[in-house]
Amino acid sequence: MSLWTRIGNVFQGRKLSREIDEELQSHIDEAIAEGRDPAEARRAFGSVPWLREESRDAKLIPWLDSLRADAIFGWRQLMKRKVASAAAILSLALAIGACTSAFRLIDALLLRPLPVANPGQLYSLSREVIGFDGKLASFDGWAYPDFLLMRAAVKGQAELMAVSYPERVDLTYKAEQEMEKGWVQYVSGEMFSSFELRPAVGRLLSESDDVKPGGHPYAVISYDYWTRRFAQDKKVVGRTFRLGDRLFEIVGVGPEGFNGTETATVTDIFLPVMMHAGVLKDDWTWHRTLARIAPGVALKPLRARLDATSSAFERERTKGLTGISKEILEKMLAQTLVLESAAAGASGLQRDYRTSLMALGVLVALVLLIACANVANLMTALAAARAREMALRVSIGAGRWRLVQLVLVEGAILAFLAAAIGAVFAWWSAPFVVSMINPPDNPARLSLPADWRVLGFGLALTVGVMLFLGLMPALRASAVKPVSALKGGDDPHARRRSMHALIALQTAFCFLALFVAGLFVTTFERLSNRPTGFSAERVLTLETIAARPQPAAVWDQVAEHLRAVPGVEKVGLANMVLLSGGSWNNSILINGAPSNGVLAYLLQVSPGWREALRIPLIGGRDFRAGDVYPGVAIVNKTFAKVYFNGEDPIGRRFEVVFSAGERVGFEAVGLVGDVAYRNMRDPIYPQAYFPFYSVDAKGASVPIGEGTFIVRTSITNPLALASLLRREVPNARPEFRVSGIRTQTEINESHTIRERLLARLAFFFGAVALLLAGVGLYGVLDYSVLQRRREIGIRMAIGAPASDIVWRVTLEVFSMVLAGALVGAALGLASVRYIEPLLYQVKSTDAGMLALPSITILAAAVLAALPAVIRAVRIDPAKTLRAD
Amino acid sequence: MPKPDSLQGSLDLLVLKILSRRPHLHGYAIMSAIKDWSGEVLRAEEGTLYPALHRMEEAGWIQAEWVTKETGRRARIYQLTAAGKKQLAAEESRWQAVTAAVSRVLGTV
Q: Where are the beta strands (DSSP E) in A334-431?
């Protein structure tokens, strides 16, 4: 018989036993028929059950058979107490699901290697510098001329590739005049061959596309985009599209699965770096630099060489800069080049969410541990109730391992049921979290496959949970001493001690979870309630582009047309939206003296912009028609404080240093209130506003190609006007088109997306942790009262007051809670530095931050203890003592 | 594991040999055959025979089937398989070698 029939026999145990019995019976019948004495014939067999076992074991796999028996027994045990089992399974399922979900996200964003050849050899180059605020800042943007020098310096040891930040641009396919959005990335042609990628159709970009600035109007589209936009039409090669003022020809389609190196962004179109407007600029850092380092090349000397090359470049570049003091220049140049692994790609989302995801991962792991501790306590209590059964098993010869297996199997059933439910939860929740971090206009596309990596993690987690749950009770059960257990005199304290230790552990983890949740929630509160200095409600921003740059008068015409639309109150123009993430900053000179090193943040705005955003005018005047750039400026309060020592700036002059030798003078004509400029976390910068319309050196008006209308409406939901305004812009002038509409509120809130996510999830898991810990505490107290009811009865009988009983019942557990809370607080204070960058204006040492979890846990503990205490006090000594 | 008995580890060999000469025997008949053919010198205990039969069946040396005898009683009868024939040859030659060796030792002393 084969292995399979033996495995099959395990599950047909009854039939197998019957057959063996029948054969033995037929033997006895035969013997009797031959004339032997029936009694003697039977006796000759000895112990039939033993014989049967012996034969059974030969016919099946004994360990599998015992496992089957244990599984059935364990299942019956669980079904006996349905509510407790269901609660245990559900709490475990939630925790396992959350952990798996966190792993899916972390894996997809940070761990999963890119689908390219040897992803392990990929590194990303970035620079670290001590900023003006004294904090270490890191940035990964590079200028192309710098890149070329570095590439030459390490030739033969590493291949360097320039990969631009993905941009969402407007493009038109020639045949269809409609404009559409697409994600574009400018890349070194070399990238494709270095990644050993093969085209699905046509050709990919190559080194020969990296030669002449502006001379390679070719595009490779990604497989994903090919499928979405062109339904995999092979005739796509040769089609052209217009991007800005250039025409590109599609030459090929990338391989399936390759979406660029920007994890969480699916690049639609790859263009040669030579086609980027900044390819010759030495002060425009517009691309990442990736390096494929040849095997066997030492990282340290390579990094040093790159660092030296880049430093020399920066030194050369800043030579011509005037107006900046030597010290500040030195500070700016003191950069360190850093090589980081880019095996999983390099993206902004990774930078933004690395720490957050790790923090969430730890949080859900804490919840899992709390849930495990709960179920372990439950199982310990149940094992206590089964001590006699175990003792009986030992006395009839069950081996130690056999008992361990018996209890472990029960743990396994719990763990695997929980894992199955948890898998469903994880399947749903990971995409849910991704959708939460998505700005609506800019969807992150993170592939979240449920493949062997996720399955393996889930399985490892489940086995871990099983061991955590089963091992302790199993070892204890196997160490049972039959004589004392059957007499009923087992040491009950050992068991209680381990339960109490778990309570302390739970409290510590719960405290930590609540503490971290408190920090995140407070951060979100403070950040989202931070005054921005302007009114975002009812404001729409209309990014508008003109087919050809248009003169000021035409733009004014469109603005005037929009002002006439019903529901529109104010309209202004700006070259950039506040808090949209972009920034334009330069040094300021007063009276030609060297800069004090503080940069001013700049913006070009039209008359009406200030009123549309309701920024208060403190002194001087607003812009009026006829103001042009360069010439006059409006500054904010911080500007006056930083550059004019707080004196009235009206009528004062200052110069802006644009680049080497290029200084432009302005006269401050207005003073306005401070507003948040780049994001919600930054301090208030000195800001200067210039007129939206410019004149060139000869005084001729410069036509403008794009700008943003800031529209204040009179309705609470400004989006209701969005489609109307989108139509009205081309109605006013057919050359104009709106390429994007967002509410200012949405733009402001986009800066707190991460904080909101963290606050919500941390709050949720903190609450779950508290609930689980409370349930655990309740269970343990209840159990210990039940166990000590005889003792309590005796104490009451001899006159102990209720307060004494309460004291005795709760003292031990509450000291454990206290110890746990202290450990939790210590853990919290120790771990807070890892999440420091995620916090805003919250100090972990704030009394409130520590008091909140303490009070919450204390309240939960009192609540959880109440039923047990009431039960203890209500014990009727007469009844209890008679019952035994 | 078979317990040590009077057959000194030769039970497998005897069962295989008997089944090779007379296929389709049930357990009781095999036990009787051992007794009869050995001139009542050797005796297989029930408690040893059946586990041994089931073990050899598991090893694939013999196979069993249920038959209904003319008396109306059901019996489980055994016969050799191809693997069993090979095993018998191996066991037989091993046995010959052992007995020859033992005889040599007895002869020299």
A: 335-341
Average pLDDT value for residue range A805-811: 85
A33–B50 C-beta distance less than 8 A: no
- State residue A802's pLDDT score: 84
SS (H, E, C) A833-851: HHHHHHCCCCCCCCHHHHH
Q: Is residue A431 scored above 90 in pLDDT?
A: no
> Taking the model in full, what pTM does it have?
0.76
> Under 8 Å CB-to-CB from A791, ≥6 apart: which residues?
none
Average pLDDT over residues A155-177: 84
Maximum distance among all Cα pairs of chain A, rounded to whole angstroms = 134
Q: Give the distance from residue A765's alpha carbon to the nearest chain B alpha carbon, in angstroms.
A: 55
Angle (CA) A351 A356 A358, round 5°: 100
Cβ neighbour number for residue B74 with a 10 Å cutoff: 15
Q: How many CB atoms lie within 10 A of CB A539?
A: 26
The whole-angstrom separation of Cα A753 and Cα A743 is 15
| CA dist., res. A784 & res. A883, Å (int) | 18
Residue keyed to tokens 């088109």: A737
Alpha helices in A386-399 (DSSP H): 387-395
**What is the C-alpha to C-alpha distance for residues A540 and A571, in angstroms, rounded to an integer?**
10
Residue A31 has pLDDT above 90, yes or no: no
Contact in structure between B84 and B19 (CB atoms under 8 Å):
yes
Q: Which of A23, A33, A58 sits opposite B58 (nearest CB)?
A: A58
Contacts of A24 in chain B (CB under 8 A): 46, 50
Q: Is residue A346 within 8 Å of A124, Cβ to Cβ?
A: yes
Find the closest chain A residue to B52 by CA distance: A55
* Interface size, chain A vs chain B, as Cβ–Cβ contacts under 8 Å: 63
What is the spatial distance between Cα A880 and Cα A117, in angstroms, rounded to a whole number?
A: 74
Give the pLDDT score at A307.
93
Structure tokens at A379: 């199982």
Task: Check residue B5 and give its pLDDT.
Answer: 44
pLDDT band at A660 (very low <50, low <70, confident <90, very high): low
For residue B56, the chain A residue with the least C-alpha distance is A58
Q: What mean pLDDT is reported for chain A?
A: 85
The pLDDT of residue A132 is 63
Residue among A551, A532, A558, A518 at smallest CA distance from A725: A558
Distances (CA, A) of A861 to A69, A188, A334, A372: 40, 61, 54, 19
Please give, rounded to a whole number of angstroms, the shortest distance from the CA of B95 to a CA of chain A: 25
The pLDDT value given to residue B4: 38
Specify which of A433-437, A461-465, A531-535 reaches the highest per-range mean pLDDT: A531-535
* Residue the block writes with tokens 């004149």: A695
Residue A4 has pLDDT above 80, yes or no: no
Rounded Cα–Cα distance for residues A251 and A217 (Å): 10
Show the DSSP H helices in A742-884 as ranges.
744-749, 753-787, 789-797, 802-835, 847-873, 877-883
ipTM over 0.85: no
- Which residues touch A626 (CB under 8 Å, ≥6 apart)? none
Q: Report d(CA B51, CA A58) in Å as an integer.
A: 7
Average pLDDT over residues A339-350: 87
Q: How far apart are CA A666 and CA A657, in angstroms?
A: 11
Closest partner residue to A51 (CB to CB) among B51, B60, B76 is B51
Residues of B with Cβ-Cβ distance to A51 under 8 angstroms: 46-47, 50-51
